[in-house]
Amino acid sequence: MNSLVATDLRVQLGAREVLRGATLAVQRGRFALLAGRNGAGKSTLLRALIGACRPVAGGVELEGRPIAAWPHRERARRVAFVPQSVDTPFEFTGGEIVRMGRYPHHGRDEDLAAADATAIANAIAAVDAAAFVHRPMPTLSGGEQRRIAVARALATEAPFLLLDEPTANLDLEHALQLVALLRRHTDAGGAVLVASHDLNLFAPHCDDVALLHDGRMHTVAPPLEALSPEHVRTVFGVTADAPTGPFPRAFRL
Amino acid sequence: MTARRVVGWLALTLVVLAVLYLGCSYEGPGIASLFVWCTGGLDEVEGYVFTGLRLPRLLVAACGGASLALAGAVMQATFRNPLASPDLVGTAAGAALGGACAIVLQIASLGLVVVPAASLLGALVVTGLVFVLARAHGRFATATLLLAGIALNTLVGALTSFVVTLSFDNYTASSNVLFWLMGGLESRTWEHAVITAAGLVVFGLAVVPRRRELDLLTLHDDTAHSLGVDAPRVRRWLVLCACGLTAATVSNTGGIAFVGLVVPHLARLLVGPAHRVLLPAAALLGAILMVGSDLVCRLTPPTWNLRLGVVTAFFGAPYFLFLLARNRRLEDS
Asked: Model's pTM, two decimal places?
């Protein structure tokens, strides 16, 4: 029941069938990495998992109930999402964007309460954004905008966190901080699914790696098994040495 | 200054401007007569200038300006595009076509709401077409929106001209529609004021409860969805409201350029982008711009025949040059 599950998912965008039977379970207490080539369907799978696109076959269930059957705000209190694009054309400050993360907890006219202020402050501290949270989004760097987007997702206090390329534009220090933050979230009983091309950064810290290939789930397994030279060759078309050394410290593909 | 205080100052400015509007004109009773009229001491003929001419015209200007500014603010947020406005998206052109058809077909005299209803229908059809043409993968890119808007505006403008030429053998109908299309607030009556005000109240009040969803729609659709907003449904509802606001105004004023585009930007500069304060600030600023522009028209000699749309464009164009310079400074920093 404590899971977000996609079963035999088929999604068509225009004339192209992007997902052709993808199955994946995101479980609480587990940190999963979703990897695959460009255009494999990673972002589409994340969108389907939050109910943002309608599959032509298969389905998504959140805690045993079809995702589309959840009232919008109730679903939003359980599943948070950080998309690839995090820009906004208007000059909202970083703090205003993070505050939007509390929308699922309130009616249209309710003001924010003390609990909201705590959640917002915790989220900003978690991504180390206090120094620039007062600045308008268009004036922030790509990495700073991404940290604000992650803070907005954290402010929802949703147990399921889905992130699409969350380390794009992030410097090394903040990329490592984010990985540690996501690990803490799963250790505290939450669930994390990250779509990323940065296998060497995420794989040592996650519990499962899901490899999506040509719209289908190629394999879902612990990192050492999923990233074997055979799977890497099939999915990415490159020859790689097997991960070596004492896992996870010396993990290198 | 806090955003709420700015809104308070804007409201005060509008009140002062309204008093000036009623009391100042190139011809006719002046500000002293206004105060006499307020105490009930003015004769019937001079009193009619205030009650029958200037007051309804003031209400059409204020409510129309507020409506166009609200429609612009709503469209810019729902299309996630700072260039969206009733003018660019084709809503105003569609409303003009609908109204022109009603006048040329001589059904306008059937009832007060015939022209506004026809304008609303035209606005909805054209905006719906731009909506469908400009949307790609859930987004409204600036270039696509501009192209779709230009294409539809050109087509609808040509159709409106065609409709007008069809009526050339009927002098009354053709002169009525031409005069209306040129835009302006001359000869506005209480009937026009009631319809414009009703449009603002009905559609404006329908927008206000959606102010937080408007904030979220300025993020990507997937983000808004993940935060609990049914983005497609909310967007359809808000665009319908923007069409209603535009149609109720255009059917009574004709085409007034720049208000829907410029005023939301100006309001954001004053109070920021959060729609909780942006909506009232934009509505007040829109009213101030329209009332102020029409006051300028009324203070110039009648022989100049200065049109309201010309004055609003005088305000609008330099403001966009200012925005251009400001964006360059932001990019440099």
From this structure: 0.89
